Amino acid sequence: MSSSTSSSELPPIILYHYPFSPYARRIVWYLHLRGIPYTQCLQPHILPRPDLSSSLGIKYRRIPLLSIGRDVYLDTRLILSKLESLPLPISQPKLSAPAGSDDLALERLLSAYSIDGGLFSRAAQLLFSLDNPLLKDPKFLADRAEFATGGGAAGAKGAAVSREDMAALGPEALADLRDYCQLLETTVLADGRRWILKGNDKPGMADIEAVFVLYWVMGLPGALPKGMFNEEKFPRVWKWVERFRVAVGESKQTPAKKGESKVTTIKGDKASEMILGAEWNEKGESEVDTGEAIVQFHKLEKGTVVEVWPTDSGSGVAHRDVGRLVRLDAKEVVIENDKGLRIHAPRHGFRVKPSAQAVASSL
Ligand SMILES: N[C@@H](CCC(=O)N[C@@H](CS)C(=O)NCC(=O)O)C(=O)O
Fold first, then answer.
1. Which CATH number fits domain 285-363: 2.30.30.520, 3.40.50.150, 1.10.10.10, 1.10.3720.10?
2. Is 22 in the pocket of ligand 1 (CB under 6 A)?
3. Pick from 27, 31, 182, 202: most CB atoms within 10 A?
4. Is residue 126 within 8 Å of 170, Cβ to Cβ?
5. DUF7962 domain: from which residue to which, for each copy (predicted)?
6. Do residues 84 and 94 lie in contact, with contact meaning Cβ atoms separated by under 8 Å?
7. 350 CB under 6 A from ligand 1?
């Protein structure tokens, strides 16, 4: 497609999420900032999610997921990079820093710091000290215990998540979040710029990467003690977060204009009908790169039945997607599942290996 493709020519884009998910906000903001119309299919915050498991045969248990046509993308890092590569008109410019720039390095490092570097996990530890009804809901705690342990006996007993043990981590988490505010206040934001990247007149990907954890905890009443985190201590950070809130249409003072964010909400059966009836978003030839160490290690080929799951917590043990290998390269692994859709996962943070079921049934 040429760069003059209009958004209406894109395959349908469907976001599966629940609005209070901080990871989902990353995608919602991106779509808003770039003016990409999309459809959302709202999901419960705990399992089961039959819209995904029964209708689409997806085992991945995290939120959000994004489908573009009949391709479904897991993990916000892959989702954002796919959205960046959509062929949109110049009037909807990309949000990432230019290839090869120092700015791109900063953007990537902010992402790694927030997601892999533990800032998000630290922020999550603050939840356990809050007087929040969700954290007293036995169904929610049992669900997240399974998430933390990967299910099975330990998960059923809820061994991994004790509210008291988690609450005890709160003070350390606060110290780390304060360090982060201090870092932003005294480095990138110190010269009074409006956005994370110098000279930018609009928020970009670097802002999304830098803000999403802070934005989340700042919105949770009681999470950040007022004496430790306030506008006097971190004036530049506070103003930048507020500017961002306005830019993404979430400020009460300056709400999004009517018609500005073109979001349609649909039910799961309609969403799966749209996905399964759509064209592939990625139509080109796909290869399994024989130069990849994992391909050599497991002797993978196109069509090998594999399992794919995230490795950053135990949650994958019970939630592995199974399908025939369509593509594997340095960036992603793509499988086609038995419902006939393609599931894309990034290589980073995900594991792929021949399916135990398939190996067993061929013996
Ligand atoms: N690395 C993932 C993390 C996504 C994630 O942890 N999402 C949370 C919600 S904010 C989640 O799915 N929690 C468990 C659940 O909802 O079942 C990404 O970037 O998308």
1. 2.30.30.520
2. yes
3. 27
4. yes
5. 124-252
6. yes
7. no
Q: Is the Cβ atom of 43 under 6 angstroms away from ligand 1?
A: no
Going by CA atoms, what residue is nearest to atom 1 of ligand 1? Answer: 75
What's the 2 CA to ligand 1 centre distance in angstroms?
Answer: 34
Q: Quick one: which atom of ligand 1 is closest to the CA of 349?
A: 1
- Tell me which residue has its CA closest to atom 13 in ligand 1: 62
Q: Contact at 8 Å (CB) between 319 and 309? A: yes
Enumerate the H helices of the chain as residue ranges: 22-34, 50-56, 76-84, 102-115, 119-125, 138-149, 152-157, 163-168, 170-186, 205-218, 235-247, 268-276, 293-298, 356-361
The DSSP call for residue 203 is: -
Domain with CATH 1.20.1050.10 in the chain: 102-247
pLDDT in tens, the chain (363 residues): 344 456 668 899 999 999 999 999 999 999 999 999 999 999 999 999 999 999 999 999 999 999 999 999 999 999 999 999 999 999 999 999 999 999 999 999 999 999 999 999 999 999 888 888 888 888 888 887 765 544 443 334 445 567 788 788 999 999 999 999 999 999 999 999 999 999 999 999 999 999 999 999 999 999 999 999 999 999 999 999 999 999 999 998 877 776 566 799 999 999 999 999 999 999 988 899 999 999 999 999 999 999 999 998 765 567 999 999 999 999 999 999 999 999 999 999 999 999 987 766 665
Tell whether ligand 1 has an atom less than 6 A from the beta carbon of residue 25.
Answer: no
Distance from C-alpha of 302 to C-alpha of 289, rounded to nearest angstrom: 9
Cβ of residue 59 lying under 6 Å from some atom of ligand 1: no
Rg (CA), the chain: 21
Distance 260 CA to ligand 1 centre (A): 27
Residue nearest to atom 11 of ligand 1 (CA): 62
Atom of ligand 1 nearest to the CA of 63: 12
**Ligand 1 atom closest to the CA of 77, numbered from 1:** 19
| Delimiting residues of CATH 2.30.30.520 domain(s) in the chain | 285-363
